Amino acid sequence: MENSSKDDYKIQSFDIETQTLLKTALNDPGSVDLEKVCSVIVEQSLKDQIFSREAGRICYSIVQTEANQTNGSSFRRHLLTRLQQEFIAREETRRRSTQEWVCLVSFICNIFDYLKVNNMPMVALVQPVYDCLLRLAQPDALKNEVEVDCLVLQLHRIGDQLEKMNMQRMDEMFYLLRDGFLLQEDLSSMGRLLLLEILEFRAGGWNLSDTAQKYYYSEVTD
């Protein structure tokens, strides 16, 4: 019930017609154009970072309802096709708009987090998610606090799951983050703090001690 109320809250940011479309999709997906529903969710996710962080839950609800009611997977198919298109165009998106780019990364990571097959992450999404996060770990991206913040946020949310799927690529990412922290001179003080926190977070088994949490929280709020 908690998830449903939050989904309703997020839908309130749309116009009335779109709200009706999404509410119908959540309750009776077989009665609406699911490709259109997918486009609405993706396009809003690329504009609204708060929505992009939560859209995975809405997509999960539609996928589950469609599977339960009709044993279908039309919405998931449309969603994965659209994600593939956006993923292919990711560098162009990054050049055009940093905000749109971090929204895209957030959305893809949230879909990875919510959409499971037999309670396991979808294998088809593992490498695209890694590719996006590794792009955020490159030296030019580490200079941008917005991109560093996005990277750290996603690793807090799905880092543990990703590592279990492919530890080698996670190691590769953290070599980049460590080198960036130690060697890169053009990082902002906040960017450097965020990198230190995520390095410590993974070293602690994807967990921070209470003392470390208080330290980083106080530094960020100050």
Automatic annotation (TrEMBL):
Keyword flag Cytoplasm: yes
Domain of life: Eukaryota
Major subcellular site: cytoplasm
Residues annotated as signal peptide: none
One GO CC annotation: nucleus
InterPro entries for the chain: ARM-type_fold, MIF4G-like_typ-3, mRNA_TranslReg/HistoneTransl
UniProt keyword terms in alphabetical order: Cytoplasm, Nucleus, Translation regulation
Record GO biological process: regulation of translational initiation
GO molecular function: RNA binding; translation activator activity
Locations listed in the record: Cytoplasm; Nucleus
KW Translocase (keyword) present: no
Domain MIF4G: 10-202
Pfam families, sorted: MIF4G (PF02854)
Its biological purpose: Functions in replication-dependent translation of histone mRNAs which differ from other eukaryotic mRNAs in that they do not end with a poly-A tail but a stem-loop. May participate in circularizing those mRNAs specifically enhancing their translation.
Family as reported in the entry's similarity comment: Belongs to the MIF4GD family.
Subunit structure: Interacts with eif4g1, eif4g2 and slbp; probably tethered by SLBP to the 3'-end of mRNAs ending with the histone stem-loop, it also interacts with eif4g1 which is bound to their 5'-end.
Protein's recorded name: MIF4G domain-containing protein B
Originating organism: Triplophysa tibetana
